[in-house]
Amino acid sequence: MIWNEPKECMSQDEMRHLQNIRLKSTARRVFHNVPFYRKKMQELGIEPDDIKDIGDIGKLPFTTKQDLRDNYPFGLAAMPRSEFVRVHASSGTTGKPTSIPHSRKDLDMFAECVARALCCAGATRNDVVQVSYGYGLFTGGLGLHDGATRLGATVIPASGGNTRNQLTLLQDFGSTVLACTPSYALYISEALADAGIDASKLPLRIGVFGAEPWSAEMRAKIEDGLQIQAFDIYGLSEVMGPGMSNSCEAKDGLHIAEDHFYPEILDPDTLKPLPDGEMGELVFTHLTKEAMPLLRYRTRDLSSLSRGGCVCGRTNVRMSKVKGRSDDMLIIRGVNVFPSQIESVLLEIPEAKPHYMIVVDREGALDTLEVQVEIDERHFSDEMAQIGALRGRIKHALDSALRVGTKVTLVEHRTIQRSEGKAKRVIDRRKI
Amino acid sequence: MIARQLSVFLENEAGHFLELSRCLGRAGVNISALSLAETAEYGIARMIVSDAAEGEAALREAGYPVKITDVLRVEMPDEPGALSSALAKLAAGGINVSYIYGYSSGGTAYLIMRVGDPRKAASLL
Hints:
By secondary structure, chain A is α/β, with parallel strands linked by helices. Chain A contains 11 helices and 21 strands. In chain A, the strands form 5 sheets. In chain A, strands 4-3-5-6-7-8-9-14-13 form a 9-stranded mixed β-sheet, with helices on both faces. Chain A has a 4-stranded antiparallel β-sheet with strand order 10-11-12-15.
């Protein structure tokens, strides 16, 4: 089912026309209501009237996470505080937090987008949606909650954590859709196996997972472990939250709600636009947001765009599964390494578990990359030669995939911390 | 005869085997034979215990993944040539031995042998 056929199946010309009107309106509003953008546009020598259509988007200034921090909490708002009906915030792990106000219409748009996303994954009003994202300032919990409510489904507001209870809810309420981070989905599937619960006997049929990059191999592992179809949901709290895009039955990219968020793919170094199909940094411009519209927000997420019809019937532009974040990228002895590459390699080795920790350090002038891996219980051997050979195989696979030498450390079962939210995979001990 | 051996993967860190032995102790499971194989970072504890099922249950309850393997438990006279005569029978039957641990006491040697085909090996001996 398609939630909003007129918008999701619009012709490219009609969509462009709608985007032209909305971009002009956004540029005008931020120029008049947000001193930060007025100053930036004046520095670039542009006025709202210079933005005639979407082709002029390149004239507009960028916005970064640092801009949001510098203007914390409501310096970028385009409305008075009395118009905010909710404020979300992202954690300040690397300094000051960022806060994102929403007007009533903004939350309405949020729920609409999440309802589209859930439909895109095959959910209907007859489903029971267990929302196992954290509820609170993080947009995952409340975002999925409102969207599933809009869809008319039965919502189980489980929130994150308390895994034993998640299993009880899955069984007792017969949840058919699970929404959480992919790392937590994997954890839940392990917990089911440990508890001796046969996943194929549960009514659960769909997973809607997001908030962290995950590989195609990880998807296969989760689908097998939970006996479901797993879909990507994408979003970032600065722009809205989950539901900005979602993968459909084709599982070939995520349809973006481009009537609300205009996507660009830029070269992260030169900030020049890249043609469709090429991997670069995803940048979003709000087309309808009221409380705090952002121009060309740099997500740091690496993806590519593709246009043209899709077997699901939607015409909305598709973004590829996020490959990684440009700021998650590790540079090891001059080689770019993404944690997602390591995950892909480990998932192809049945004896290794997809629980891993990457430790980067520096010995003398040389970077070292250590990958700590748990051995799968079913493949553990009592023979040292077998364990040694397994370690050799993991190292060989990692070395050739990453093109940089790694040190593989086998660790005891369940010593790598399981994540109930966003997984932390990298410890960088280098002092630079 | 054939015995059921429990193996556990352990990091080579102070206190890790202590924790495991406490776990078996609390469950009232006695270790009758033991071998610890080690590398710089990790090792494998292999044990013959008084009750393999109880030992396995106690270890799993504590979160240890346990591998169960059938191994050969061999008794022989504690005298020169006894071991080589047993090994010669196994070699003649094409049985490879991965590892052995054991001790002798009161004129008898007790060995645990990890072989490819324990049943065939037992019949050869």
